[in-house]
Amino acid sequence: xxxxxxxxxxxxxxxxxxxxxxxxxxxxxxxxxxxxxxxxxxxxxxxxxxxxxxxxxxxxxxxxxxxxxxxxxxxxxxxxxxxxxxxxxxxxxxxxxxxxxxxxxxxxxxxxxxxxxxxxxxxxxxxxxxxxxxxxxxxxxxxxxxxxxxxxxxxxxxxxxxxxxxxxxxxxxxxxxxxxxxxxxxxxxxxxxxxxxxxxxxxxxxxxxxxxxxxxxxxxxxxxxxxxxxxxxxxxxxxxxxxxxxxxxxxxxxxxxx
Length: 258
Known about the structure:
This protein is an all-alpha fold. Helices cover about 80% and strands about 0% of the residues. It has nine helices and no strands. It has helices at about 10-45, 50-55, 60-105, 115-145, 150-175, 180-190, 190-210, 215-220, 225-245. Helix 5 (about 150-175) packs across helix 9 (about 225-245). The longest helix is centred in the N-terminal third of the chain and has 45 residues, at about 60-105.
């Protein structure tokens, strides 16, 4: 019960999470709008068949100009495709650095920012591996049991397991600033209380999903609101799990101590 009592640091960290999502979402939307406007200005809103016929009807000098414009658009698309993920990675690393300094009450410094980026990249690779494992489990289960509930439970367990390890690694890293040491320490010092927190975190997410289930049909009428609600619930749950796993609301200074 004590884990559900929010602290001031919990709200500060949650604010950083929300600001990251808003900033990244706005950047992603603006980039998409810019690409759409540029493409529309170049094609004039023509369909692919109309555009093909229009290009074939152009004289050589105008065709060369149109080709140069399409090349410029292609380069811009490549630039956005490359720069947007890099921007998202750096911004996410910065936000994680800020969040964990808030939670650990340590002074903020850019000195080790590159290490935070490396740890974030390793975390994303691990997330991809966890997702691949979920897909494999779902395929295997589908051969024997055709049930969305079983697949949903498997997803919750894997997600909660990944986030539990992720939060513990970052909690240790903000104290030691050693990447490999932090990762190895978490897996060496898994104790009963950490497993209990993992189980309780997974059970809490399952309960939240069950509560939403009766309203699924009504929410499907408003897909945008439904998506906003799902993201909001997940962000709140993940922020709570982060505080709960590292023992922010308990008497322990560090779940990995002793």
